[in-house]
Amino acid sequence: MAYSNSKRPLSPHATIYRWPLNAIMSILHRITGVGLVLSAVLIVWVFVAAATSERYYNFTSWIVSSFIVDLILFGSLVAFWFHYFNGIRHLFWDIGLSFEERNIKISAYLGIVGTVVMSLLSIVYIWLY
Question: Which of 21, 40, 77, 83 to pair with 114, CA 20 to 30 A apart?
Answer without folding.
Answer: 40
